[in-house]
Design brief:
Chains A, B: Its EC number is 1.1.1.8. The structure is a homodimer. Helix content of chain A is 44%, strand content 14%. Chain A has 15 helices and twelve strands. In chain A, strand 8 and strand 9 form a beta hairpin. In chain A, helix 8 runs parallel beside helix 10 and helix 11 crosses helix 12. The relative contact order of chain A is 0.10. At the A-B interface, helix 9, helix 10 and helix 15 of A face helix 9, helix 10 and helix 15 of B.
């Protein structure tokens, strides 16, 4: 792993080498990320203008290949229609080719593809490459969460930051004001480079030294969104919804800190924390399906509602709630996380939706692990 | 000031004296507070059953006096119709008489009445009395905020806690789940007494040692609600709204900490902080009027909209924004609080509503006060 600092950039023929960026992924959010980045590489002299974007090739109904359509129209006609990406974005359907010259790799694919992508990239990337993951929704396994940033570092032997926040791709695409948080591990200069690459007047990015905290926010918020949707479905009002969101934020913080002692409270005040939670609990598919679930009195399963309402998209909150529940149960922490626990129990039909506000369930029982009180 | 601890309660004829509670105020929130308290004094042996409630006397259209109507119907027919308060709530139109036997005083009146009430109560209350203020919206004067809790302590010579939170009175009245935060100065046992007095299965109360932080949250959130309403009026979407709410929470925290070094970050994770902010920015009259203001492109003044939309209620966010602006301007802090600053400038027509998201304005300029960075 060879970290680069601005002052330590590799020199070729006596000249400082410019950074080359490749975006690995070209869905809705990946395309918006490419647009943000491409607007900056044109302006910043320390970056090559060209931004390469790896496209998982598809054939469009017209018979045209997606990558060719993107390059011809300068627009991702399938996943971000109507938005020009910048003429310096080059779609490339060949993964290995797309990454080979880049020293800044932006990963933004569905999380279930990352293991396969990493396997393909071993030995194919520059040794001095830096990575950032925009992927929300890593898995929480019994032995702890399987962080995408760790996967990238372990598989590819490169440093990996994360970028999370209240980021509805389509709103950023039309340049509505928004924020995001970069989480970095050690080297502030690298985080600053990513901040520079993503920041625009309508997209404000800050960096915090807390990869795990930032990355966990992006996943755990979906569990809280299920709870918020249930409150909406039961028409309990804004007061109750705000209370449930607050308790959810507290459990996100406590869970993250119990798993990683390096996680900081202040991270939860950043865009990746409270702001992303608000966005996700106001709109978002997890909230929406949970609202429908509660309106039906829990009689129609989440699987059924997901199939009906999401046109093939997956409902991460329910599966994350299940994974979190397994960790809590395995470690004997269920009573410390009454909201996370209830969300899972409601989602599998063991409790009715109205249990979401049962008082006795919502006061963490520190007696089972006294040291846990400090995490609240 | 003679604080009582549970273990140190005054003994009369060898018996521990029970606590007597009086609620000073009988508006919408005051009536709900009396209902909550009355349900607990019946259950808890350390309290007298009776809860006295001072009523600012009015004559109802029927010709009946409000206090008599409350006592006859066991219901505040004017300010909380349809809700039974508990038969142990006794309305009393005589302020001095209402407080004379109480050793726990709950203040819940419009804030502009508190100076007059305190003047009337000097020398009329028990020396060992404890107070709590539920009053949101103290004034922020040039020399700093004029805290209601300080006013009570200074004028009456008694200790004063505060209770704030995401508390829409009508939702709590119908027993929808909600939370609140008690802020206390020194003695944890007194805070616990208040927690006991207010807590019900649908109203969860926690205590934090931070009177100023809790009290400032209750006022400053209204400035953020104006900003959130402007974002709604401009139809900028949930992403932008969440970002503005987050920046607002950050400025609430930084402003409170700059004014009172005792203020704690963790207070802003409590119900009085993030949850009350969410409730106020989702519903609430400040948000609503600001939305209308932005929809009209700032062409109709807040005064005009307030008169039209609020039926005599006052819009606290705009006046608080003005007061905060004066403090910021006086201390040379304007550039540290770009959101608070812009809200005021928009509200007086100096800037257009769209300025709410102008990037260059939203990055605090720490260079003017380097030590301020630690408060963010």
């Amino acid at each position: 792993m060879a970290p680069f600092l601005e002052s330590q950039q590799m020199k070729v023929n006596g000249e400082t080498e410019k950074c080359r960026v490749t975006v690995v992924g070209s869905g809705n959010w990946g395309s918006v990320a490419a647009k943000l980045i491409a607007s900056n590489t044109l302006k910043l002299s320390s970056f090559h203008d060209e931004v390469r974007m790896w496209v998982f090739e598809e054939v469009l109904p017209s018979g045209e290949k997606l990558s060719e359509a993107i390059n011809k129209n300068n627009e991702n006609v399938k996943y971000l229609p109507g938005i020009k990406l910048g003429t310096n974005v080059v779609a490339d359907p060949d993964l290995e080719h797309a990454v080979q010259d880049a020293n800044m790799l932006v990963f933004v694919t569905p999380h279930q593809f990352m293991e396969g992508i990493c396997r393909r990239l071993v030995g194919m990337i520059r040794e001095d490459a830096q990575a950032i993951s925009l992927i929300k929704g890593m898995e929480v396994k019994m032995e702890g969460p399987c962080m995408i940033s760790s996967l990238i570092t372990e598989q590819l032997g490169i440093n990996c930051c994360v970028l999370m926040g209240a980021n509805i791709a389509n709103e950023i695409a039309v340049e509505k004001f928004s924020e995001a948080t970069v989480g970095y591990r050690e080297i502030r200069d690298i985080a600053e480079k990513w901040v520079q690459l993503f920041s625009t007047p309508y997209f404000m990015v800050s960096a915090v030294q807390d990869v795990e905290g930032v990355e966990l926010c992006g996943t755990l918020k979906n569990v809280v969104a299920i709870a918020a949707g249930i409150v909406d479905g039961l028409e309990m009002g804004n007061n109750t919804k705000a209370a449930i969101m607050r308790i959810g934020l507290r459990e996100m913080k406590a869970f993250s800190k119990l798993l990683f002692s390096s996680v900081k409270d202040s991270t939860f005040f950043e865009s990746c924390g409270v702001a992303d939670l608000i966005t996700t609990c106001l709109g978002g598919r997890n909230r929406k399906c949970a609202e429908a679930f509660a309106r039906n009195g829990g009689k129609r399963s989440f699987d059924e509602l997901e199939a009906e309402m999401l046109q093939g998209q997956k409902l991460q909150g329910v599966s994350t709630a299940k994974e979190v529940y397994e960790v809590l149960s395995h470690r004997g922490w269920l009573e410390l996380f009454p909201l996370f626990t209830i969300v899972h129990e409601i989602s599998i039909g063991r409790r009715p939706p109205s249990a979401i506000v049962e008082f006795s369930e919502l006061k963490p029982k520190f007696s089972i692990l006294e040291s846990a009180a400090q995490f609240y």
